[in-house]
């Protein structure tokens, strides 16, 4: 099976101009994902895990290296060098991102956030409404909140909404940046069920988790990051906590 994503010698650093300080984040990172795989990334906080995901999603622009993505619409694309127009289309149609935080337009309700994500994919409003109801019910978001603004939600409610909005699009590539960080055990199970559904449908996933128990029997491969560098974990089979 061909690679859906191939990262070659990726490096990213940050410059604090007011302190005249240069901070390396990740250096010479190379990894790959085949279509339909779920690859996990582990490592200490601040080790550079999220930086790699943000470079793939192009929240950050890498200093060097290539991020080759096999797009359904555009063919083989280097995400490190693609135009903003191409990146915008890929985010709408092919690449999803779930973080611990919910950043949304003001005065947009929870229901509208999920519906709009589906409509972006080209579906009609009736279908979007049906799928929105299914997703919000799955994550047990109280109906009284559906037409409220997420600014009033608790941290756990915002995170569940963020996950629902990304997963309802069933993207070809889904980036998961600590998506279960502030969820209770019941909500984590809901996330795991959806991940398993997406895997069965062929979605390729790259996920960062501190919760190794959550990753049990999900990941095909694991990378560990230390001092900004990635290392392939010794186990090639499904990651377990034993």
What does this structure look like?
- The structure is a single chain.
- The strands form two sheets. Strands 6-7-8-3-9-10 form a six-stranded mixed sheet, sandwiched between helices. Strands 2-1-4-5 form a four-stranded antiparallel sheet, covered by helices on one side.
- Helix content is 32%, strand content 29%.
- The longest helix is centred in the C-terminal third of the chain and has 16 residues, at 185-200.
- It has one domain: P-loop containing nucleotide triphosphate hydrolases (Rossmann fold, 3-Layer(aba) Sandwich).
- The protein is globular.
- The chain has seven helices and ten strands.
- Helix 3 packs across helix 4 and helix 3 runs parallel beside helix 5 (155-167).
- The protein is of the alpha/beta class.
- One of its GO terms (molecular function) is lyase activity.
- Keywords: ATP-binding, Lyase, Nucleotide-binding.
- Residues 5-242 form the ABC transporter domain.
- This is Phosphonate C-P lyase system protein PhnL.
- Pfam families: ABC_tran.
Task: Tell me about the largest β-sheet.
Answer: 6 strands, mixed
Q: Strand arrangement, largest sheet?
A: 6-7-8-3-9-10
Counting structural domains, the number is: 1
| Strand portion | 25-35%
**How much is the radius of gyration in Å?**
18 Å
Structural class: alpha/beta
Q: How do the helices and strands follow one another from N- to C-terminus? A: EEEHEEHEHHHEHEHEE
- Please name the CATH architecture: 3-Layer(aba) Sandwich
Which regions have little confidence, pLDDT < 50, spanning 5+ residues?
A: 235-242
Highest CATH level, the class: Alpha Beta
What would CATH call the homologous superfamily?
A: P-loop containing nucleotide triphosphate hydrolases
Name the shape in a single word.
Answer: globular
CATH topology group: Rossmann fold
Protein name: Phosphonate C-P lyase system protein PhnL
Keywords: ATP-binding, Lyase, Nucleotide-binding
Organism: Paenibacillus aestuarii
Domain ABC transporter: 5-242
């Amino acid at each position: 099976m061909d690679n859906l994503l191939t990262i070659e010698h990726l490096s990213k650093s940050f410059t604090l101009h007011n302190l005249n300080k240069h901070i390396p984040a990740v250096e010479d990172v190379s990894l790959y994902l085949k279509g339909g795989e779920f690859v996990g990334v582990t490592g200490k906080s601040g080790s550079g895990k999220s930086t790699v995901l943000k470079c793939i999603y192009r929240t950050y622009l890498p200093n060097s290296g290539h991020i080759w993505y096999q797009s359904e619409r555009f063919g083989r694309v280097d995400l490190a060098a693609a135009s903003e127009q191409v990146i915008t289309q890929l985010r709408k149609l092919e690449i999803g991102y779930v973080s611990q935080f919910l950043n949304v337009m003001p005065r947009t309700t929870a229901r509208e956030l999920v519906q709009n994500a589906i409509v972006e994919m080209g579906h009609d409003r009736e279908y979007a409404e049906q799928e929105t109801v299914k997703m919000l019910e799955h994550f047990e978001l109280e109906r009284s909140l559906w037409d409220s603004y997420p600014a009033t939600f608790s941290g756990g409610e915002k995170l569940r909404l963020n996950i629902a909005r990304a997963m309802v699009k069933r993207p070809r590539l889904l980036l998961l940046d600590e998506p279960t960080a502030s969820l209770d055990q019941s909500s984590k199970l809901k996330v795991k069920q959806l991940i398993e559904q997406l895997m069965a449908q062929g979605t390729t996933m790259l996920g960062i988790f501190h919760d190794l128990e959550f990753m049990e029997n999900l990941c095909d491969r694991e990378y560990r990051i230390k001092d900004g560098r990635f290392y392939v974990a010794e186990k090639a089979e499904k990651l377990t906590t034993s």
